[in-house]
UniProtKB/TrEMBL annotation:
Protein name from the UniProt record: ABC transporter domain-containing protein
Domain ABC transporter: 1-88
One family name in Pfam for this protein: ABC_tran
GO-annotated molecular function: ATP binding; ATP hydrolysis activity
UniProt keywords, alphabetically: Translocase, Transport
Keyword Cytoplasm appears in the UniProt entry: no
Amino acid sequence: MVPQNPKLPDEISIPDFVMLGRNPHLGLLQWESKEDFNIARKSMSLTEIDYLSRRKLGEISGGERQRAMLALAITQQSPIMLLDEPTSNLDIYHQIKIMKLIKKIHTLKSGFGVTILAIHDLNIAAQFSDRILLFSNGSIAADGMPKEVLTKNNIDSIYGSEVTIITHPEHGTPVILS
């Protein structure tokens, strides 16, 4: 689980924080193995935070903290990954990079079985999701593939705003314009 705005300890080093993802795999009095350290290093490299290895959580930006949280989740190697606004606090480069990484990890056989995102950016959701659920007043209002769910009628009625929807020229996914 990667929450949107977690309370994190400022004094922990980035590698030690990412290594916390291995805790579920350790016995009561067991120390991390060489393999555990390699998994954490690979996760830091995948999320492009390996350059932060000498820094502490309290010394880095919000976007870097978000990527550290994702590195921890990847290090855990859970069959289910829950992400709450994984692109918050990130510039457009890192938003796309993180979403491509999540998609890649999800599709790898050794990766996660199920990835669930809570995300408000419908255009990013359309581009990177296989299935979308739209909620209205706590209930599922629409469920299906992005092309089926992100329609003008659904967006106008659920969000109370008039939009224009075009098809992305490269991805073929819906793009919502206000």
